[in-house]
Amino acid sequence: SKLKPEEKEQVRRIFIQLVQPGVGTEDTRRVATKADLNDKNWSLVKKLADSRLVVTSRGSTENNSEQETVEVVHEALIRNWGQLREWMEVDREFRTWQEQLRSAKKQWEENNRDNGSLLRGAALAKAEEKLQERPEDLEAEKQFIQESIQGRKNLHRRTIITLTSFSVVASLIALVAGIGWWTAFTGGKNYQLIARIQSSEALFASNKQFDALLESIKAGKQMKKELDIITPTTEMQVLVTLMQSLYGVKEQNRFEGYNQPFIKASFSSDGQKIAATNMDNVIKIWDLSGKEIATLNQKQSDNITYSSSDPGDCPVNTVSFSPNNNIIAASDGHDIKLWDFNGRELNNLQGKGKDITVTSISNDGQLIAAVNIDGKVKVWNRNGEEIHNFQHSENFFPLSNPISFSPDNQILASADGQENIVLWNLNTEEAKILESQFTVCSIDFNSNSSVLAVTDYLSGIEFWSLKSQKQNFVDDFGVITVTQYPEGIISTNWDGSIKFWESFSNGWKLKSSWKIHSAPVWNVSFSPDRKMLVSVSDDKTIKLWNLEGIKPPSIRPINGLRDMILSPDGETIATVNADDTIKLWNLDGTLRQEPFQKVSSSSKITFSRDSKYLVSSDRNVVQLWNIESGEPKTIIKQKLPQELPRRKRNDFGKASFSSDDKTIAVGRKDGTIKLLNLDGKEIQTLQGGSQLVSYSPNGKIIASASNNNTIKLWTADGKELPSLVGSSYSITSLRFSPDSKILVAGNENGNLLIWSLTEKKLLHTLQGHTSPVSSLTFRPDNKIFASASGNGSNYDDGRIKFWSVDGVEIKTLKTNSSAVPSINFRPDGKMLVWSNQMEVVMWNLDLNYLLSQGCDWVRDYLKNNPNIKDSHICVLETSQDFN
Questions:
Q1: HEC-encoded secondary structure of 868-879
Q2: Four-CA torsion 8, 11, 13, 17, nearest 10 degrees
Q3: Per residue in 785-826, pLDDT tens?
């Protein structure tokens, strides 16, 4: 207890090295050398020796050099010290593997460090991973692992030299062997990453987003060191999974490793500290980073029996936190002590009660109320002067008797354990009885003291209007406590979940449910600014939640948007808005310049390849906009009778620029495609296409969906090429790969088709979405593309999928919308920009950014939890680690 938090972690590392893990037998003592434990830990070893927990000595090693050693004082310590047993259970797999590594290292040293005794293959891959994860525990083995890594590099270099030295036949044989070895090696690395990512995805799907983030950070760190041998598919899977974990996590810290569950928690008034209590009246105080500040103990009377954690029982103890979060009160059954959130005792109200079972503090912190097992309810001021003395009826039953002051300090509510709630008026001392439908487990007032909410495990949540005494009920089987706040209510449940409810008509409807613990959630409490939530559970953890989480940057035009595109230089986002404007945005969400006015909200927009121009096309007009000046030029305009129904109109579709930005292709609903120069002069008209048209990036091919489910192709000068066939449904989207060798199309049935333009054949037909494919985009490496779906109907799936051109589905992400009409990779591939009808969202896919943000999120947890074996994962190895 006298050790600093960092020293406690060092003690754990020291003791697990002093235990030889048994294989089918009991663990035994192990003599460790000073080198095994790292020289910087030796001063702490001396402290442990002074406490007679370990014994140090000096002896000869196998090379006849003297070395200081240490071992536990007796093997009984291994068998009987519960903490050490817990440490070993956590680290047993690592310690067993480490002993095997030490055997291999010993053999290498006995063979005069012969290269043939170095680690290879899977054994080396695992050693690399462990060294990355636990460098401080592998200080003595570090050189052996690094020599093995160097040996592998040397072997690879010799293989290359050998390939260039032999004859053609010998070279071919060696080449096959070398390729086989390299393929096996790189394949193993990719499989390791995929396994870790699959673990992260499984955790995320199981509502363990915090653990999923930790696992995906490990994958990201591993990939960063081996990026040159990771396939694009694996890389994308790691990036998207890490991004999903980062944007999906709400849990920000976790306090764990305690022997008893905590049942109440509260923030301090400044939101910088958290206090929690268990059923034994032990109170602990932490700062938000998880550093323990104080431990307070107000042991209860032996005459009082408190509820167990059996289903249906309500957790009770005699600790309460003031609503303004400045004072902690606890009773031992007779005395009541008051502390502040620094653990400083403020007052001791001695002999104020007999067998007190529960306490409460008024909102202003000036009044303290207590209930005892006889049904007496007493109220004192801070100085210990008795202000009120109430008595429950003879039907009082000391089972669950929550008590609470109203926020205006006018009413004290107390449950009698027999389905009644007594409201004591603190001005008149009059009592009003509310006849509940069930035994009350918790009581909570709303902020203006007008509504009382009570809970019962077997029934749900009951609401009382204190003015009209009108009841309202929410059926929520398994509820434990309820907390009211201005936007709604939160209930905690026996299944480990918390539920958010919002007002609806004359009642409440469920807004969302979070499965946040593996056992009953006893209590939740808001921070003063309501941006954070703390939860306590029977699973012996306290969790800190950031309700806002990490949100991707977004742009929300006031009146909604109709189309979106990212400029080819990746610097500007253009949106067509419901207010008949085109707006240009910087990636930070600020407007780049004044909006372009008088544009139909149904317009489709396209950037020129050099990002200097924008084309908007509507039902009867195509306009060219100079980005800098904001001046439009009408390229083509057609007269259409206004009375024509939409199905008969010959509207223009989205335009496409040629590679040199000198020609614009725009299709019409009648299947004609106009090729125009920038002055609007018609160069050529192509037949048999549609509104969906696109130039290839190299400018050599024009592609357009036709009305017979095929894709028609032309050369840049208008010569028709063989059509691409294979789709059974109408084509709804097209996209060339950046090198113009691949064309991907999506159809109205949600399928994706991949054609090779060099081989002139259909490569893959993929069962993609459950609604029409609305947009496609490629990463600059030509290996990865993304697809989106939905046009706004109730049946759209609103998903974004990531694919390899080999036809492998990498990852599917659900957006917050049923329709995603537009997606664009940034030219460097490090961001995906997508839009729905309300906002533009920017998903960051830069590995350095994701690792930096992820590590910032979990850093406090890793720093202040000594039992975590992966605490190293966010330790920066160099100052350039995230640059």
A1: CCCCCCCCCCCC
A2: -160
A3: 999 997 655 556 789 999 999 999 999 998 888 788 999 999
Q: What is the DSSP letter of 652?
A: B
Chosen CATH of 1-117 out of 1.10.3470, 3.30.9, 1.25.10, 1.10.10:
1.10.10
The three-class DSSP label of residue 164 is helix
Does 23 have pLDDT greater than 80? no
In the predicted model, is pLDDT for residue 307 greater than 90?
Answer: no
Alpha helical stretches, state H, 493-618: none
The yes-or-no verdict on residue 507 having pLDDT over 70 is: yes
Distance CA 515, CA 747 (A): 37
Question: Which long-range CB contacts under 8 A does 333-337 form with residues at least 24 apart?
Answer: 333/300, 333/301, 333/303, 333/304, 334/301, 335/298, 336/368, 336/370, 336/380, 337/296, 337/298
SS3 154: helix
**CB-count burial class (<10 Å; 0-12, 13-18, 19+) for 57:** exposed
Amino acid making up residue 519: A
Closest CA to 497 of 517, 478, 474, 477: 517
List the single range of 143-147, 187-191, 227-231 with lowest mean pLDDT: 187-191
pLDDT score, position 60: 57
Q: In this structure, what are the phi and psi dihedrals at residue 834, rounded to the nearest 5 degrees?
A: -135, 160
Alpha carbon distance 103, 109 (integer Å): 10
Q: How many Cβ atoms from other residues are within 10 Å of residue 484's Cβ? A: 17
Residue with tokens 């960063």: 224
**Residue 260 is encoded by which pair of tokens?**
């008893």
Cα–Cα dist 670/686, whole Å: 11
DSSP 227: G
Q: What is the CATH number of domain 252-546?
A: 2.130.10.10
pLDDT of 161: 60
pLDDT band at 570 (very low <50, low <70, confident <90, very high): very high
E-strand spans in 466-581? 471-475, 479-485, 488-493, 497-504, 507-515, 521-526, 532-537, 542-546, 554-555, 561-566, 572-577
Q: What share of the chain is helix, strand, coil (3-state, %, to 5)?
A: 25, 35, 40
* 470 and 489 Cβ atoms separated by less than 8 Å: no
Q: In this predicted model, which residue has the larger pLDDT, 60 or 17?
A: 17
Q: Decide if 305 contacts 311 (C-beta within 8 A).
A: no
What are the tens digits of pLDDT across the range 456-469?
766 788 888 888 77
- Amino acid present at 374: D
Q: 276, 284 in Cβ contact below 8 A?
A: yes
Torsion 58-61-67-69 (CA) sign: negative
- Cβ(395)–Cβ(387) below 8 Å: no
Question: Residues 724-736: what's their mean pLDDT?
Answer: 95
- The domain made up of 621-725 has a fold known as Thrombin, subunit H (2.40.10)
Q: Per-residue pLDDT tens for 625-665?
A: 999 999 899 988 876 555 555 555 668 999 999 999 999 99
CB 37 within 8 A of CB 76: no
Q: Hey, where are the domains in the chain?
A: 1-117, 166-249+849-883, 252-546, 621-725
Query: Can you give the length of the chain in residues?
Result: 883
Res 181 pLDDT > 70: no
- How large is the average pLDDT for residues 723-734? 95
Record the tokens describing residue 527, joined without a space: 């921070």
Helix (H, G, I), strand (E, B) or coil at 811: strand
